[in-house]
Please model this.
Amino acid sequence: GENVEQHPSTLSVQEGDSAVIKCTYSDSASNYFPWYKQELGKRPQLIIDIRSNVGEKKDQRIAVTLNKTAKHFSLHITETQPEDSAVYFCAASRDAGGTSYGKLTFGQGTILTVHP
Amino acid sequence: DTGVSQDPRHKITKRGQNVTFRCDPISEHNRLYWYRQTLGQGPEFLTYFQNEAQLEKSRLLSDRFSAERPKGSFSTLEIQRTEQGDSAMYLCASSLGSVIASANYGYTFGSGTRLTVV
Model:
């Protein structure tokens, strides 16, 4: 089955700096890669996603890049703010049509702390 | 319908007791997933429904666990003879999708049910 590794496990930055979180996956058939933000005691929330036919996607201060050959993808947050502090999870899945039916396999999470 | 609802939010039970959790997905979402999350870890897949059909179960889901989604709407997750190792946050998520469609859509998670087995 799919295995997703996420690094670093903790990341501390100063407000205004950039933050980068990296993930690798094992299943070459995976083609959908979302990122979730989870604040303490709250539900994971989708912040951005990318499909394998795209190499990069941006949404304001957040961007995700994908390298299918190397089987890794990264989350980039620019101009970080204290409210960006949370746990971030990457995930990977196949589209339906195989046996996984869109099941997401999550990374272990990265605790991001943005210091004012 | 503003999101995925889970009930209860918290459950404390004695070891050996049975517990049941409920999830109400977003009404137009046909896919429903159950995940388990322990402290400091990412969510781990438990099981998945496409409408009322349970299409996949994780090996994490022992025979003490059972899930249903009658009529393809709400879902229940039951844990029988609870053990301390079952203590975790149980998350439900829903999404749009089709068995034959090629597109995957992001999940919407519920707030979860935090289970504590004492």
About this structure: Chain A touches chain B at residues 4, 6, 31-32, 34, 36, 42-46, 49, 51, 89, 91, 93-97, 99-109 (CB under 8 Å). The CA atoms of residues 12 and 94 of chain A lie 32 Å apart. The mean pLDDT of chain A is 92.
